[in-house]
Amino acid sequence: MNKWCMLYLSVGLSSAFADSLPNNLITHSQEKENKKPYLLLYPHNAVYILPFYHSLSEPTPSQSAYKNKDTEIKFQFSFKLAVFNELFSPYGYFYFAYTQTAWFQSYNQADSRPFRDVDYQPELFYSYERPISFLGGSFKNISLGYNHISNGERALRSRTQNRILLNMRWEYDIAPQSVFGIKLGTWVYIGKHLDGFMADNPDLALYRGYNDIGLYYKSNRNLLELYMRPPIARRYYPYFELGYTLRVSDNIGIYVQYINGYGDNMFEYKMRSERIGVGFRLWDK
Fold first, then answer.
1. Which is nearest to 261 in space by CA: 230, 233, 234, 215?
2. In this structure, are residues 52 and 256 in contact, taking their beta carbons and an 8 Å threshold?
3. 157-192 b/e with 16+ CB inside 10 Å = b?
4. Is the pLDDT of residue 50 over 90?
5. Would you give the DSSP letter of residue 155?
6. In the structure, what pLDDT confidence band is assigned to residue 60 with cuts at 50, 70 and 90?
7. Partners of 85 in beta bridges
8. Are 245 and 255 in contact (CB under 8 A)?
9. What span, in angstroms and rounded, lies between the C-alpha atoms of 272 and 57?
10. Percent of the chain scoring above 90 in pLDDT
11. Which of 16, 68, 85, 277 could form a disulfide with 60 if both were Cys (CB 3.0 to 4.6 A apart)?
């Protein structure tokens, strides 16, 4: 796919999501009183574009003999759709989801503006979405499913992981329009990981770990997030991602992202990096 077409596609999907949000999106805070319409896309992970994404650490690694620029474009689009409604429960949904994240050397005219890396992440999961009261707040959803991430490359550049993933999200209402939340994830690797070796990334679990945690505070116009893959003992290598979004319209916010640690993308799972980006994000109500 042409690199500019991929960028336009991500922006187009974001616009389509934004146009449909007021009428179609069942938000996190709503009870699931009606079935979800089939073939309707919902935002899944964050949808954003960072026209300024700059490396503060070592030079951005290159997949060839060419030298990458330290400033590039990073963007991500993500969606999910309900394949089955009221599965096993009036509050149970079976989803297909897809997330794609790209690092685009758009300012590297000398080397024909290549895509430095692209991560592809399809998922299938079951989600139970009836709030469960706990410690003054409530679990909004608990999900279990299959998650695949790959950079779509071959041979020495191939990076792949397959997981059975358990996620849960807990929220506490601080005020009528402000909420504090915690997202917890844990997983087991499947496929070749169980054999004790992988041709493309034999030590992936050492760097990616077996769990992650996300903390967030959301108000009417502000969203502050911290995502972590924390180290376990001394063997595992941490990754931290800090994000802030300021809503400037009904569906769009100014977005700042800072990352520090191992694995900004799959190819860099064992490389430490520090980067900061500024751009725009779809505001999920």
1. 230
2. no
3. ebbbbbbebbbbbbbeeeeeeebebebebebebeeb
4. yes
5. G
6. low
7. 93
8. yes
9. 8
10. 56
11. 68
Which pLDDT belongs to residue 41?
A: 84
Q: What does DSSP say about strands 178-189 and 115-128: parallel, antiparallel, or unpaired?
A: unpaired
Please tell me the CATH superfamily of domain 3-282, with its number: Phospholipase A1 (2.40.230.10)
Kindly state the tokens that stand for 100. Answer: 């794609």
Q: Which amino acid is at 151?
A: N
- Partners of 228 in the β-ladder: 213, 240
Instruction: List CB contacts of 78: < 8 A, sequence separation 6 or more.
Output: 43, 44, 45, 46, 47, 97, 98, 99, 100
What are the boundaries of each domain within the chain? 3-282
| pLDDT value at 28 more than 70 | no
Closest of 162, 38, 60 to residue 107, by C-alpha: 60
Buried b / exposed e along 241-260 (16+ C-beta atoms within 10 A) = bebebebeeebbbebbbebb
At residue 209, what is the residue type?
Answer: G
What's the full length of the chain, in residues? 285
Backbone angles phi, psi at 3, to 5 degrees: -65, -35
Tokens (6 digits) for 285: 């109500």
R_g of the chain, CA atoms, integer Å: 19
The residues, ordered by sequence, that sit 6+ positions from 181 with a Cβ below 8 Å of its Cβ are 140, 169, 170, 171, 172, 214, 215, 216, 217, 218
Q: What is the residue whose two structure tokens read 């751009």?
A: 279
DSSP letter, residue 89? S
pLDDT at 142 (0 to 100): 97
Type of residue at 196: G
Predicted confidence band at 110 (pLDDT cuts at 50, 70, 90)?
Answer: confident
